[in-house]
């Protein structure tokens, strides 16, 4: 536990997880995919991670929005945990006109054929403005159903990444360029977090709250 608390303190500069809340998973039980889109070198990126919440609470939904002004980039995303009791940090930041929500418990728990087994992203044009940014996030379930959030337009589809056996999708890690941190920016790079085992809540008894 002490090791985990130090890990969390270093990672997120927060102490609250160490003293309160449910017992978090230990880091080896988490999976981080490689980053999709953006550039692997030559740009200093700032990182936003759902790791702290992903290892503590089951994910409920993924919210997102697209900015059409920039050729359809994923402007904003936010993971929702624990039946909407906890919200992750905002990924991206362009003020978005319309936020949509992808309901994950319904997709993953109620039916084994709807468990997320693969994920990928689409990347925008590779130019100095679009910078190969993320356009959308896509999931494929056990029976081949595709779910997604973000732009319908897809300039550069990326290969599907297979979820490790026994892991459940749990959140995102995203990046945008440091030199654009003073203004709102969209999501340039994206990686997937998964946790070992079942981490999905049954929120059916809580449905109808908030709306
Ligand atoms: C996958 O499963 C869902 C839920 O059971 C069902 O609605 C859908 O038609 C299935 N898709 C395929 C391609 O079998």
Specify the biggest β-sheet. 5 strands, antiparallel
CATH H-level homologous superfamily name:
Jacalin-like lectin domain
Number of helices: 4
Q: Give the tally of structural domains.
A: 1
What proportion of the residues form beta strands (DSSP E)? Answer: 35-45%
Helix and strand sequence: HHEEHEEEEEHEEEEEEE
- Give the distinct bound molecules: 2-acetamido-2-deoxy-beta-D-glucopyranose
CATH structural class: Mainly Beta
Q: Based on the coordinates given, report the CATH architecture.
A: Aligned Prism
Mean pLDDT: 81
Pick out the low-confidence regions: 1-22
**Count of β-strands:** 14
Keywords: Signal
What does this structure look like?
Strand 4 and strand 5 form a beta hairpin. The chain has four helices and 14 strands. The protein has a single domain (29-197), classed as Vitelline Membrane Outer Layer Protein I, subunit A, CATH 2.100.10.30. It is mainly beta. It is globular and about 45 Å long. The protein has helices at 2-12, 16-19, 51-54, 104-108; strands spanning 30-32, 45-49, 59-67, 73-81, 86-87, 91-92, 100-103, 116-123, 134-141, 146-150, 156-157, 161-162, 167-177, 189-196. The strands form three sheets. Strands 3, 4, 5, 6 and 7 form a five-stranded antiparallel beta sheet that branches. 2-acetamido-2-deoxy-beta-D-glucopyranose binds at residues 111, 113-114, 143-145. Keywords: Signal. Residues 1-15 form the signal peptide.
């Amino acid at each position: 536990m002490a090791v985990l608390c130090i890990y969390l303190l270093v990672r997120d500069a927060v102490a609250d997880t160490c003293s309160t809340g449910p017992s978090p998973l230990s880091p080896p039980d988490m999976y981080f995919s490689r980053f999709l889109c953006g550039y692997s070198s030559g740009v200093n990126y700032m990182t936003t991670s759902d790791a702290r919440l992903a290892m503590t609470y089951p994910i409920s939904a993924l919210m997102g929005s697209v900015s059409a002004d920039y050729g359809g980039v994923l402007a904003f995303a936010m993971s929702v945990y624990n039946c909407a009791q906890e919200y992750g940090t905002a990924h991206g930041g362009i003020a978005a006109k319309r936020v949509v929500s992808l309901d994950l418990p319904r997709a993953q728990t109620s039916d084994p054929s709807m468990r997320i087994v693969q994920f990928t992203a689409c990347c925008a044009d590779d130019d100095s403005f679009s910078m190969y940014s993320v356009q959308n996030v896509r999931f494929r379930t056990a029976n081949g159903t595709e779910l997604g959030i973000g732009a319908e337009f897809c300039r550069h589809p990326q290969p599907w990444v297979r979820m490790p056996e026994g892991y459940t999708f749990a959140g995102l890690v995203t990046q945008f360029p440091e030199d654009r941190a003073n203004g709102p920016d969209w999501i340039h790079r994206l990686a997937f977090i998964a946790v070992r085992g079942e981490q999905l809540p049954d929120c059916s008894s809580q449905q109808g709250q908030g709306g």
